[in-house]
Amino acid sequence: MNEAGLMDAVGNSSLGADTAQVDRYIEGSYVDAWRQCVKVMPRNWFANFELAETQFTPLTPNLADGTGYIILPADFYLLSYFKMEGWKKPVYEAYIDNDKTSSIQTNEFTRGSVIRPVCTIGLEIYSMEARSALYYYSLPKGLKTHKIEKAFYVPVAEPILDKNSDFILELNDQILEPMAYLSAATVFTMFEKYDISNAIQARAIAMFPGLQSVRGTSVTTKQ
User: Hey, CA dihedral for 107, 111, 114, 120, is it positive or negative?
Assistant: First the structure.
């Protein structure tokens, strides 16, 4: 907010008696700004974790059908990259499972293939609880095994409120400035200073035009 030139006497008066708490308001707005950025910016600009088969995230293949799913980790937010052995190309997006996607992907004539693979996200029961699962479509029927060749995901952002000063954000430097403007815009919106908030958001969009598509929205679903 200082860089935006809005924390001078005018900016201070805009925030009133809560100016002393402005750092906490900005820290509290970090996750919202992160969500706006992660939907439109390159996924490799954010922290990426490997998505691998473990006892907590098992792979369950349907060998006869050429399909299967992997239980997703609890901190999963967005898919970055997913490729099964035998696929000609990876998948970079996973669709939320619904009537339309289910109708297409359960039909062997219309579902994804080794040339045009598809992933969707739905629910499975694992260890007596409902867990998010990534379904993959598809591989040739009757293979002896299904194996993930390589896969990565973006984990849910950790709130930075009350974090130590040595806490590492794990963000590409190109994200930091537009995210700072988005955080400042959120704070001014909280104080009903909409003109200032809109001006700051416009600066963020000028830095990364793709943010226009998520301006004023809350990005909370894994799509």
Answer: negative
* Mean pLDDT value across residues 82-87: 98
- 56 falls within a domain: yes
The reported pLDDT for the residue numbered 213 is 79
Tell me the CB-side half-sphere exposure of residue 220, using CA atoms within 13 A: 4
Residues 76-100, mean pLDDT to the nearest whole number: 97
Let me know whether 149 and 84 are in one domain.
yes
183 upstream amide cis, omega within 30 of 0: no
Give the residue numbers spanning the domain of 84: 49-155
Residues 176 and 130 in one domain: no
Strand order in the sheet with 148-155: 49-50, 148-155, 76-84
pLDDT at 173 over 70: yes
Tally of domains in the chain: 2
Q: Which residues pair with 153 in a beta bridge?
A: 49, 79
Contacts of 169 (CB under 8 A, 6+ apart): 160, 176
pTM over 0.85: no
